[in-house]
Amino acid sequence: MTSNYAVPVNEFSEVKRSIYGRQIRTSDMILKGLIYLCAGLSIAILIGIMGYVFVRGIPHLSWAFLTTVTSATKGTFGILGNIVNTLYIVVITLLIATPIGVGAAIYLNEYAKPGRVVRIIEFTTETLSGIPSIIFGLFGMVFFGNTLGFKYSILTGALTLTLMILPLITRTTQEALKTVPDSYRSGALGIGATKWYMIRTILLPSAMPGIVTGVILAIGRIVGESAALLFTSGSGYYLPKSFFGKILEPGGTLTIQLYLFMQKANYDEAFAVAVVLLVIVLAVNALAKFLSHKFDVEKNS
């Protein structure tokens, strides 16, 4: 028995020819060429910048440069103090910003009712992410440094950078939570789980790839920041005498030291610091890719 919905052979041939043998329009080819051109230019610019920095900086990198502190009495010249200060800034900033940013995202996404208040909070968060970093530095110097009495210190710089990366962590966490299917929520609540238990054991593990990616991208911004830290953390390059005592002391990061080298016309040393910064940024991006892929594999398995 022949089906009434069978397609005749000649009509099938016409459909096949119309799909696979259709004429390619010139405008499509031009647009495709422009897309490939833009992609190629982006890659070429990145390779050009990195290649120039590496060519200028690698010859001036040495183990002594990375593992010693500049000292006129000892006759040493290095950036170890700046590397340690950068680690201090990164760790303290993340310890403060991550819980606040993730908590704010959970409140906005899971507890707050959609309305004017939520829209105002989201609008202010987006506005905060667009403020120039030097304005954050000015505010941090006046409020954290002068009003609260922290002066030029690593803590002042970390608190200032906390304000800068909060929008990034909050927004990425919100988007990660929105990707979790609603069936996970309704299923957990349907078997009697409390809302906080559901968030802690189901939502956060499911959204972890996005959260971790946001935190690691925030690390990249902290490492590359200089304008805000010029006003807040100072330019000290000495190693800490005690772990907690260093928090209230001035500390210049690698970007600050790069700026000072350029200001003093020490271009070779500046490019050497730039190589270190590029390696750190590349490592942070690679770590973000690796952890995101790892969490995705674990979630889908």
TrEMBL record:
* Gene3D superfamilies (alphabetical): MetI-like
Q: In its UniProt entry, what is this protein called?
A: Phosphate transport system permease protein PstA
Q: Which InterPro entries match?
A: MetI-like (IPR000515), MetI-like_sf (IPR035906), Phosphate_PstA (IPR005672)
Which species does the entry assign this protein to?
Candidatus Enterocloster faecavium
Name the CDD domains on file: TM_PBP2
Domain ABC transmembrane type-1, first and last residues per copy: 83-288
Please, which domain of life does this record's source organism belong to?
Bacteria
Q: Its topology with respect to the membrane?
A: Multi-pass membrane protein
What subcellular locations does the record give? Cell membrane
The residues forming the signal peptide are: none
